Amino acid sequence: MTRKDEHKVAFLYPGQGSQRVGMGLELYNAYPEAKRLFDQADDLLGFSLTRLCLEGPEDELNQDLNAQLAVYTISCIVTDIMINRGIRPDVTSGYSSGFYGAAYGAGCFDFARGLEIVRRAGEILLDEGKKIRGTMAVIFGLSPDQVEDICKRAKDVWVAIRNTPRQTVISGAISAVERAMEIARMEGALDAYPLNVSAPYHSELVEASEARLLETMEDDNIQSPLVPVVSYLSLDYISEKSRLKKIMAAQLSRPVLWVDLIRKIGADTELMIEVGPGAVIARTVMWIDRGIEIINTDKESGLIEAMERCGV
């Protein structure tokens, strides 16, 4: 059954940080789409991503590249389950590495091609990250403009993600990130703490990753989106494949303008669905605009709610 015409639906895809041991277990036991994509991922990667997602160990799942591959796979499983039952998005977007899931949801490539791009991008970023001791941190309780000013004063650190109007992620050299956190606490931040990541993502320190990833995608079989994909960097509605490739590469070292993206998409849609594990996106949406309706699909009950809400 097709969803009701009045429901304009956005699929939003989580990125690294949404993973947890046991994610996908309910789907694996209930939906053939889950077993099919898990088996495909295991064959393509040469190790059991299925075991890692369902059983852990947690520290291995939380390694940057493993987490990115795992979240992408779960998100694609949820996408297939919904699309196979008549739920299609009117627009998609993703949070950081969740953008690859968004491109999959918009029909830009098949699961295998997307998994390879996720792996390539992750490996390039980790390689660039080895060239400098970098990290990321969260600053809570200050405005984005205040955090931007702190980064300029601390030097060698940049605003990486504008999560909510009062929560900002910064990225840069370890010493600079530490200076920025200290300044933020002195200026009234409610909290400032480092993230457990292996590279200073979304910062100028990994800028070389842009050209490297774009070069690897030159011969990739990527299609123009079937529905618009919104960039978290440019905030554009992308509808052409060459533009999509450039955006996917550029976004690696540029900021995630998440607050602006949610406000933009929220103005044009009636329902957002968080397609994948965790509830990071749902929490940020709540802090950005409590008037936006969002359903997360971390558990099968949420997936069923999303399908029922869309008339299936």
UniProtKB/TrEMBL annotation:
It comes from the Bacteria. It is an enzyme of class 2 (transferase). GO terms for biological process: fatty acid biosynthetic process. InterPro entries: Ac_transferase_dom_sf, Acyl_transferase_dom, Acyl_Trfase/lysoPLipase, Mal-CoA-ACP_Trans/PKS_FabD, Malonyl_CoA-ACP_transAc, Malonyl_transacylase_ACP-bd. Keywords: Acyltransferase, Transferase. It catalyses: holo-[ACP] + malonyl-CoA = malonyl-[ACP] + CoA. It holds the Pfam family Acyl_transf_1. The active site is at 96, 202. Belongs to the fabD family. This is Malonyl CoA-acyl carrier protein transacylase. It comes from uncultured Desulfobacterium sp. The gene is FabD.
